[in-house]
């Protein structure tokens, strides 16, 4: 009786290990990743010659496909290293305490006001802006010096 239980337990453990292994293999995906072509210093602005895209099989969710010329390194990068956040960041297009145009649009109506950005931000990031009237609004950076209220 004990022998039968032991065999059942061993089979159950083997099946569980097989399921885990199949899931691990199935989770791997081929992704296009930005890779440094040579060593990069901290604070370097990336050019097209500084990186290349390579197809790589990865298990962890990793996205470096948005990396583009103009991005900045935040630390030293070794040759062959995958370029990903927070090691690289998109260019800052809105500076802290700098004037910006804030836009709100709804079908046929468009309103534009001026304000001062509260912090540095890149395209796609949310940023708080203090308007000329002293009101605080928050919007998404859409271009250099331009913020859109959603």
Keywords:
two-stranded antiparallel sheet, 1 helix, 36% strand, elongated, Type Iii Antifreeze Protein Isoform Hplc 12, alpha+beta, 5-stranded mixed barrel, 150 residues, SH3 type barrels
The radius of gyration is: 25 Å
Number of strands: 9
Helical amount? 10-25%
Contiguous uncertain segments of 5+ residues: none
Q: What structural class is derived from the secondary structure elements?
A: alpha+beta
Mean pLDDT value: 86
What's the CATH class label of the largest domain? Alpha Beta
Widest sheet: strand order? 5-6-7-8-9
Tally of separate helices? 1
Pattern of helices and strands: HEEEEEEEEE
Proportion in β-strands: 35-45%
The figure for the number of domains is 2
- What's the end-to-end separation, in Å? 69 Å
CATH evolutionary superfamily of the largest domain: Antifreeze-like/N-acetylneuraminic acid synthase C-terminal domain
Shape: elongated
**What is the architecture of the largest domain at the second tier of CATH?**
Alpha-Beta Complex
CATH topology of the largest domain: Type Iii Antifreeze Protein Isoform Hplc 12
Major pleated sheet? 5 strands, mixed, barrel
Strands, helices and their partners?
Elements (H helix, E strand, L loop, with lengths): L1 H26 L1 E8 L14 E8 L13 E2 L14 E2 L9 E8 L2 E9 L8 E6 L4 E8 L2 E3 L2
Parallel strand pairs: 5-9
Antiparallel strand pairs: 1-2, 3-4, 5-6, 6-7, 7-8, 8-9
Could you characterize the architecture of this molecule?
By secondary structure, this protein is α+β, with helices and mostly antiparallel strands. It folds into two domains: 27-89, Alpha-Beta Complex (Type Iii Antifreeze Protein Isoform Hplc 12); 99-148, SH3 type barrels (Roll). Helices cover 17% and strands 36% of the residues. It has a five-stranded mixed barrel. It has a two-stranded antiparallel sheet with strand order 1-2. Strand 6 and strand 7 (126-131) form a beta hairpin. The mean pLDDT is 86.
């Amino acid at each position: 009786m004990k022998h039968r239980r032991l065999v059942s337990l061993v089979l159950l453990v083997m099946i569980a290990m097989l399921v885990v292994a199949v899931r691990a293999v199935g989770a791997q995906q081929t992704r296009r990743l930005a890779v440094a072509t040579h060593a990069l210093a901290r604070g370097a602005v990336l050019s097209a010659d500084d990186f290349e895209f390579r197809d790589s099989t990865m298990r962890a969710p990793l996205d470096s496909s948005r990396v583009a010329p103009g991005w900045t390194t935040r630390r030293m990068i070794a040759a062959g290293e995958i370029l990903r956040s927070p090691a690289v960041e998109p260019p800052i297009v809105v500076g802290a305490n700098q004037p910006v145009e804030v836009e709100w649009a709804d079908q046929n109506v468009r309103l534009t006001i001026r304000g001062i950005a509260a912090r540095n931000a890149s395209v796609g990031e949310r940023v708080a802006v203090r308007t000329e009237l002293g009101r605080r609004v928050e919007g998404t950076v859409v271009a250099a010096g331009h913020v859109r209220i959603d």
